[in-house]
Amino acid sequence: MAAKLDRLAESALSDQEKLDLRKAALDDLKPIFEAAGHPITKADAKITVKEAGKSWRIRDEKRTYVLRADEGAGDIAVMGLLPGADDLFLAIPRSVGIGCIFAAGILSIIKMSKVIVTALRQALGGLFKSGGAAHDRTDTDISYPILLLLGLVTATAIWAYFRFVALSGMQGAERLSVIALLLALGVAFVFTTVSAWAIAMISVTPISGMTVTTIIITAVALLAAGLPKSEAGMLATLLVGGVVASALSMAGTLVTEFKIGYWVGASPKKIQWSAILASVLASAVVTATIMILAKSPGYDSTTSTDALQAPQANLMATALKSFVGTGDVPWTVYGVGVVVALILQILGISPLAFGLGMYLPMALNTPILIGAIVAWMVQKSSGNPAKSKARNDKGILLASGLIAGAAIIGVIKSIIKLINDSALDAVDISHYVGDEAAQNWAGLIAFGILCLFVYLDCLRAKARE
Q: Which is it for the CA torsion 276, 278, 279, 284, positive or negative?
């Protein structure tokens, strides 16, 4: 093995010979690393000869391994694992970001406490109101008694789901199911109010932050009630969080539909019933999409270099593993994140946006930053406030379309790969572009052209009366 690794440093070898040697060396090393619990995930991991016969280095997707000759044993040993930027990011800044997002969710609840109390008072008061005078069609909702009946049916279904699916086979499943149900209903009620208010006022809602907050609260409560620290316990906690996340998403959707319905003169009752029916279809479509993407390209970066980043899902997984998996909760860095959120709130900076920025990897943060710069340029492109608003609104619509289109194409691509793994090879033009460096430059130029197109297209927007 030492001789094979040393040959990589020979200057007389051609590039193809070096590639073949590296592949042969990796084929020998991969089973050993996999057996040791550190699988090499990058197909063309870089091998560097630091000192012939004595020291070598392997740079994988996110880690660097140092190999040294153990002359006493006549073998090669992995003497150290050098922490790279990715290792440091996963250990510290990302966990600080989780703490910051958690605190941002709590702060948003505190700031909206008056709205929550008002919504609760109106909802409970409406249960006992008589029908009274007839309402206009555009002001007619589902009656509160019917909502109460629907709520009881839904609560029963959720309890059955927790008892016979999420918590099936666990000791004390009946008690845990009741606690999980109360948590899901209570947190969902509070957070849906926050979500609806946020959508109505600022057109965005911190679903990720509130879902992570729900998962942490649920994990602590269920662990205190006897939930076992295991994969089954993590799944149960995640499913409770899924109920709340779905409620938050539906609340934001309903507010948007009510706003549009008000403009076009639609009946709120019909919007509500259509949303209930649509949620059934959405459940099937979203679940199918998640399962398709789990098969190809997957979400686990340790098993595939093409795996999706899935930052929100990985954030929840990290929190779950800390509380319900290993039980090794990084309280210190979580606490630092909470303090950071409080300082940001005092300074008037959004702690949720800042926390997400700390959590997301640079590969995602960088295009987000560039997009923000393009948006700033669009907003400053005219001294006329009405024209600037029209251009900014068009930019939001254009960006939303690009996001939706990219997502749809991504799902279609995954479906095609599942049917036939080599079906997309015919449209792969990377080999025409050149080597990896040329491909990177081509991608950067294409991204620059896209940014220029968005900017110029936004300038075409005209101010309305």
A: positive
